[in-house]
Specification:
With 122 residues, the protein is an alpha/beta fold. 21% of the residues lie in helices and 39% in strands.
C-alpha cells in the first residue's frame, strides 16, 4: 500500500551519507536523485524512502509522532542495522530487542531528528 515515505532534511549531503550506508544494509540503493532530494529503494515496485529539502524553502522539522519502520527478515538484521545507525550518528530511541510476542525492533533518530525503527516479525 505504501509507495514511499519522504523525510525532510536541512543538510542533503549529511542525509545522503547517513542513508547510503544505513540502507545498504538492506540492499537499498539510490533510485532517483536531484539537487534537492534523493530516493532509495530495492525496486521501483516496492516501497521506497526519500529525503528532501522542503519545497516551500522553510526549515525542515520533525513530525511529532511520525515514524518510519523498515522491515527486515530476522533479529540479527535488526541488531546490525540498529548498531549501524548509531555508528552513523543516529540517536538511540530504544535498543534493539523483543517488543512483545512476535515483534523484534530497534528505534533511533537520524541526524535530522526523524524517528525510524527497524523490525522483524518472529
Amino acid at each position: 500500500m505504501i509507495g514511499y515515505v519522504t523525510l525532510g532534511t536541512n543538510d542533503i549531503k549529511r542525509s545522503a551519507a547517513f542513508y547510503d550506508k544505513l540502507l545498504a544494509e538492506i540492499g537499498a540503493k539510490r533510485m532517483m536523485e536531484q539537487e534537492t532530494f534523493i530516493v532509495w529503494g530495492n525496486s521501483p515496485t516496492q516501497a521506497a524512502l526519500s529525503v528532501t529539502k522542503p519545497f516551500d524553502g522553510n526549515t525542515a522539522t520533525v513530525g511529532n509522532g511520525v515514524m518510519v519502520a523498515l522491515i527486515v527478515k530476522e533479529p540479527a538484521q535488526v541488531d546490525r542495522i540498529y548498531k549501524k545507525a548509531l555508528e552513523l550518528g543516529a540517536k538511540d530511541e530504544g535498543a534493539a530487542g523483543p517488543r512483545g510476542e512476535g515483534f523484534y525492533a530497534g528505534y533511533f533518530r537520524d541526524p535530522d531528528g526523524n524517528k525510524l525503527n527497524v523490525f522483524c516479525m518472529t
